[in-house]
Design goal:
Layout (H helix, E strand, L loop, with lengths): L12 H26 L6 H8 L3 H29 L1 H20 L4 H15 L2 H12 L5 H29 L2 H21 L12 H11 L10 H32 L3 H28 L3 H15 L1
């Protein structure tokens, strides 16, 4: 067999598995950082309330501006990802999160807290467009369901870790120290992704969907997708889900502490247990999604069950 034939042969299955696992792992870690920063302020509410003499409405506004900026930015980030590449955008988002944590750590007034929250929302806005673009282009179709499952699990683990990490450091030192320590997390992950940047290349993995999207945009139909009923059904579903999840994220620990006199450590642990259970459910969901022909039925049953328990 000629020597050059070896370079034209398709990759073996183990090699493909290693590549998929590497990409899934890298994107999963980055997504965990994104969700960690969803709660960069909420676990610190008891400290911030005293330090800045804030009401619960003012504390809630910090989370509101984070998610408003994140939501608007996410809608625009998809176009940026298509233009400059998902890898570059992902690197920028991680850097922005680190800068936001440092800005929050030195805040002296409530407007400075709002500005830091907005900056964190801007950094968070790029993750889903960048992550899903990379997963769709770099992970084989047979493992894409598991890739999305790991993506969701890593997000829940990020939520769970944030509460323990921030309250633990704040309790031992101060809330400012907790935010400074949090800034090193996205910087460390950014370094990891830069060192493994070849695994996240997308210039040689253009999907058919990307080509079609470019053709549609050229024909002046860039926003044609807004006419699809499925888009608005999904939008409504995720808005309602975000309302419930956001309430639990932002105020579960504080509510348990205020309503039942539960120590903050136990209240935070209760929220962590909730997120770990959600992560376990997502692992199971990856297998269910891969084997079921009616995932909508699974979603309906699970949400009805969760509503009854609540």
């Amino acid at each position: 067999m000629p020597a050059n034939t070896l370079h034209t042969m398709p990759p073996t299955q183990p090699a493909t598995l290693r590549q998929d696992a590497k990409v899934i792992g890298l994107i999963g870690i980055a997504h965990g950082v994104s969700h960690f920063f969803h709660l960069i302020l909420a676990p610190l509410f008891p400290w911030l309330k005293v330090a800045f003499q804030l009401s619960y409405a003012e504390l809630g506004l910090l989370m509101t501006v984070f998610f408003i900026v994140s939501g608007i930015g996410q809608a625009l980030a998809g176009f940026v990802v298509d233009r400059v590449g998902a890898r570059t955008v992902l690197f920028g988002g991680l850097a922005c999160l680190a800068l936001a944590a440092l800005a929050l750590s030195v805040a002296q007034t409530y407007p400075m807290l709002l500005a830091g929250s907005m900056l964190a929302g801007l950094g968070n806005s790029i993750f889903h467009p960048a992550d899903f673009s990379l997963l769709n282009k770099r992970v084989s179709a047979a493992r894409i369901g598991h890739a999305f499952s790991v993506h969701g699990v890593s997000g829940n683990l990020g939520w769970a870790a944030a509460a323990l990490f921030l309250t633990g450091i704040a309790g031992l030192s101060s809330w400012r120290s907790a935010l400074v320590a949090a800034a090193f997390i996205p910087l460390a992950v950014l370094l990891l992704l830069v060192l493994n940047r070849d695994a996240l290349r997308t210039d040689d993995a253009r999907s058919g969907a990307s080509t079609t999207a470019a053709a549609v945009a050229t024909n002046g139909e860039l926003f044609a997708f807004l006419r699809l009923p499925a888009i608005w059904m999904c939008f409504t579903f995720f808005v309602i889900m975000a309302l419930a999840t956001g309430g639990i994220q932002s105020f579960s620990a504080t509510s348990l502490h205020v309503l039942y006199g539960m120590p903050l450590v136990w209240a935070t642990t209760g929220y962590t247990a909730y997120m770990l259970a959600s992560a376990a459910g997502m692992v199971l969901g990856g297998f269910l999604a891969a084997s079921s022909s009616r995932p909508d039925h699974i979603i309906a049953r699970c949400f009805i069950g969760a509503g009854l328990v609540a």
